Amino acid sequence: MAHTTASLEVPATADQVWQLIGGFNSLPDWLPLIAVSELSEDGRLRHLKTADGQTIVERLEAFDDKSRTYSYSIVDAPFPITGYLATIGVEEIAGMATSLVTWSGSFSPVGVSDEDIAQLFHGIYAEGLAALRQTILSRVG
Q: Can you give the residue range of the structural domain that contains 82?
């Protein structure tokens, strides 16, 4: 099983960041890769359309508003993986109006190496967090 984690400091409080990313349907608000998100199954399943027209279906596995984290699995996607489980979370950095956002995932590759699939998802997470930071900067700056 492969695993990767990306983290980035964001110039906003944890509550401000969580308000933006904490909704399971909020990806289009901060992640340019995702153009559309539609919920089904009482908000536990999200159907995503990427900017290039691909479809991804993800299931909410755990949600903790108090600790500002949620975990989700991939039900259907064009990635060569099985057993995908990811978590995104926000932590307050003590004494600062800054937060640490962490996005991590584990998955088993199918037909590709652990390293190749870890690099793919690390790139998605790192680019996504950079886009989140830019979104926050555009709203507060």
A: 2-140
